């Protein structure tokens, strides 16, 4: 008669997650890691990740080959098994919120620029909102932008108005110094 009790093995398997559940958890960690890889370097620094995980994510951002990138994402998933993922989820939610707030701010400034070009009375609204406005400079930018539109020239002053409004509105874009600022999608 065997010394092995099959009922005991069965009860042990109920206590631990199934292989399918383990795989699903690993895929979730890998997906979380791939979200980290999509962040900009500045956003990544604010995440407060363990040094090894931070280095692995930065390495993955530099890898362009598909197979190597996939292996690096697997490695990031492996590292994340030993890290509490709740702060990472919270950090990602914060970064996404900042991004949407920044996008809303830029859209508001684009609308203001368009309004300024169509109606000169918008200048008074801008000076009311930002008393430090250099009105002469803004008027000159507006005049030049209108001439550019009239002559079908590149919108250099059109973009300059946007940059000036962004300057007036406060801090520059949340893009870090080692990454170029977002381009104006205003054509």
Largest sheet: none
The CATH topology annotation of the largest domain reads as Diphtheria Toxin Repressor, domain 2
| Count of individual beta strands | 0
CATH homologous superfamily placement of the largest domain: PSPTO4464-like domains
Shape, please?
elongated
According to CATH, what is the class of the largest domain?
Answer: Mainly Alpha
**pLDDT below 50 for ≥5 consecutive residues: which ranges?**
171-187
Q: How many distinct helices?
A: 9
The percentage helix is over 70%
> How confident overall, as mean pLDDT?
83
For the termini, the CA-CA separation is 83 Å
Radius of gyration over C-alpha positions, nearest whole angstrom: 26 Å
H-E order: HHHHHHHHH
Class from secondary-structure proportions: mainly alpha
Q: What's the CATH architecture name of the largest domain?
A: Orthogonal Bundle
Tell me the number of structural domains. 2
Strand content: under 5%
